[in-house]
Amino acid sequence: MTGVTAPVTTAREGEPPGEGLVLDVRGLRMRYGSTDVLNGVDFVARPGEVVALLGPNGAGKTTTIEILEGFRMRSAGDVSVLGVDPAHGDENWRARVGVVLQSWRDHGKWRVRELLAHLGMYYGPYSTDKITRPWDADELIDAVGLTEHAQKKIKQLSGGQRRRLDVAIGIVGRPELLFLDEPTAGFDPEARREFHELVHRLSDEASTTIMLTTHDLDEAEKLADRILILAGGKIIADGSADELSRRMSTEAEIKWTRDGQRFVHSTTESTRYVHELFKQHGDAIGDLEVHRASLEDTYMALVREAESGQGDAVLREFAEITEVGTEAGA
Amino acid sequence: MSSTRAVIVRAGLIRGWIEFRQTLTNGQDVFGYLLSPAIFLIVMVSLRGDKLPGTEISIGSSIMPGVLAITVLFSGVLGVAQLLAVEREDGTLLRAKAVPNGMGAYLFGKVVSVAGMTVVSLLIVLVPSLFLLDGFVFTAGSALVLAGVLVLGLAGTMALGAIAGSLMTSPRAAGILMIPMGLLAAISGIFAPLTRLAEWMQWIGQAFPMYWMGLGMRSALLPEETVVIEVGQSWRYPEMFLVLAVWAVVAVTFAPRVLRRMARRESGAAVAARQQKALQRIG
């Protein structure tokens, strides 16, 4: 699931709106009254990529997603979703996009299978040579694990079951691009794991491009090829979970034992420290463990810095590191 | 694209049928639909001994066509407005917006299910009335007038309901609609002949479709002699269909614009905010 290392988005100024890009967002701004919620958001997504959008509450994740879904007008900026401006997306465009919103209580009197089969119908005319729309209702119910509830009324479903139905409705038209706004809120660990498998299936087998928001960093790390962190109205980090934690200069934790005693030390220079450790004590060192900062640590560090007004500095620092990394890898 | 239009029609019919069936199999909904016809029937039956002055028909029977008209009005305007307000709040409209051609099919489905429920409501009043009251005259001509009044009346009232439902911010605002509609019913010659009201009230009453629907229903179901209680002692068919048609055309023309404006503003955040507000009211 490791994608191609994405070049940093700020380097694309002046390029034509991306050929072959599923999402291309440049200078996106959203203003409510006199408050800027989004203040120049830039990012892209390539076909088949799974992108996670993280950020503190109120950072504008849902606003961003709703603009991309065509549910909300933006104040400024260029946005292209599947090559179309979502503010002017037609029904043909709509048929290629799947949407799972944060909370939904609709169609409570309908039965699960009845609603899925019904909503699937709308996608029939939009089948292509490559994609047969819609997804068969029974197959889909099975794929999201709702087979034994297929004949239940929707209002009788539990929160987690309802969420799975929402996901099923989101993909019934076999979308080329799927938006998931906090898809696993209220899932138990088993449902969460099944959902993760479904996302992997969609991205691997159908090469669906997926953009999701979540508060679960572990989930972002598991699912996403690339993580975007939105804070202070801007994307302050853009890269794989690994890149993010490797390249932020957060501290690593080193644990070892010497003469039966346990030691712990935190440092940003873990390799050098361990080297020194061996030089000094040699074979006396045992049980060595080096823990790089988790995504959570990285995330907290980035958001804290962005919120204290140093967002730009962090972004530049991160951009430089990524560029160096890309060159080294090439 | 003709295939997408076919999908809108087919999906709308299926939606309408499913929702119609759901209403008929839901105890609470059925009770709601039976309650007011039952009250009207009791009133009409209790008035079947008194004759309408100058005619051979009982007051109970003379009210019945007006009850049919008021049923169309409430079912069309309130029914659609309330459903729109509720389904905006629970996200049904947003769902319709998220699927291709969903909005068209949603609205067509609403027309089908509300029209279906209106016909059922009319039958709930009409059928017992034919057994419990007498003096009605029903001919092929009556059926034609009845159908014409029903189609034009439903088109106008449902479109007005859609406009009202789009402008309302919460389902609870639908209750406020009851007040103007009740006042309108009072000056529309439903329970007492319009000719007994002050002239200015007669003019207001005749400006709205309610009166003309009542007139049409009376002309279709009551014997010819009862025309003496009407304005100008005539059924005034040309005026009747003209007023009903103008209302229907104006409402049907404006409804899509208002609906589009409302639909454009629907978003997940808007739905969530409304739900939050509703919860606060309960808590």
Automatic annotation (TrEMBL), chain A:
Entry membrane topology: Peripheral membrane protein
Taxonomy, superkingdom: Bacteria
Principal place of residence: membrane
An annotated Gene Ontology molecular function: ATP hydrolysis activity
Record's subcellular location: Cell membrane
Keywords from the UniProt entry: Antibiotic resistance, ATP-binding, Nucleotide-binding, Transport
Annotated PROSITE patterns: ABC_TRANSPORTER_1, ABC_TRANSPORTER_2
Domain ABC transporter: 23-257
Keyword Transport recorded: yes
Transport listed as a keyword: yes
GO cellular component assignments: plasma membrane
GO process terms (BP): response to antibiotic
Gene3D superfamilies noted in UniProt: P-loop containing nucleotide triphosphate hydrolases
Protein name, as recorded: ABC-2 type transport system ATP-binding protein
Source organism per UniProt: Herbihabitans rhizosphaerae
UniProtKB/TrEMBL annotation, chain B:
Subcellular location, principal: membrane
BP terms from Gene Ontology: response to antibiotic
Entry membrane topology: Multi-pass membrane protein
Lineage top rank: taxon: Bacteria
Segments forming domain ABC transmembrane type-2: 28-262
The family this protein is said to belong to: Belongs to the ABC-2 integral membrane protein family.
Protein name: Transport permease protein
Species name: Herbihabitans rhizosphaerae
